[in-house]
Amino acid sequence: MSGKTSGKSKSGKAAGSGDASKSQSRSSKAGLQFPVGRIHRLLKKGNYAQRVGAGAPGESTLYLAAVLEYLAAEILELAGNAARDNKKHRIVPRHLQLAIRNDEELGKLLGSVVISQGGVVPHIDPSLLPTGTKKGKGGATSQELLVVFFLFRASI
């Protein structure tokens, strides 16, 4: 033989697999998409409190990242529904505005927030809407009354 190795280390594992020594981020350990480490760094750097605890597995930064991810997912889902209702494929600030203001809890949470280019939520007071004219027993519709009025007026 020419002295080539079989590609295995002394422990018998394949070379380069190194699963035991591979580091894993706190976000991936928790199954989150939001970066726990970045949020922790920004909390420390931003002078929001005198101390930011490093903590154990029940870390406050991890909890904050999970809450932020949940809120983002909720808003994006509702905004996506608003975009689909308007037959659009792209979420724009108008869809975010409609999603937040039409949801009771998000509207309460973000009530004082101004979304640039969001517009306003349309609202027409029910008293200003036309009443539904139902044709009952012998009742005439508004169109029939209008025709009778014009015929009566023409005959005078």
Automatic annotation (TrEMBL):
Coiled coil regions, renumbered to chain: none
Organism of origin: Mycena venus
Biased composition (Low complexity): 1-25
Assembly: The nucleosome is a histone octamer containing two molecules each of H2A, H2B, H3 and H4 assembled in one H3-H4 heterotetramer and two H2A-H2B heterodimers. The octamer wraps approximately 147 bp of DNA.
GO molecular function, one term: protein heterodimerization activity
Family per record: Belongs to the histone H2A family.
Cited CDD domains: HFD_H2A (cd00074)
UniProt entry keywords in alphabetical sequence: Acetylation, Chromosome, DNA-binding, Methylation, Nucleosome core, Nucleus
GO cellular component: nucleosome; nucleus
InterPro entries (alphabetical): H2A/H2B/H3, Histone-fold, Histone_H2A, Histone_H2A_C, Histone_H2A_CS
Compartments, as annotated in UniProt: Chromosome; Nucleus
Residues of the Histone H2A C-terminal domain: 104-137
Keyword Mitochondrion: no
Main location per the UniProt record: nucleus
Residue ranges of domain Core Histone H2A/H2B/H3 in the record: 20-101
Protein name in the entry: Histone H2A
Lineage per the UniProt record: Eukaryota, Fungi, Dikarya, Basidiomycota, Agaricomycotina
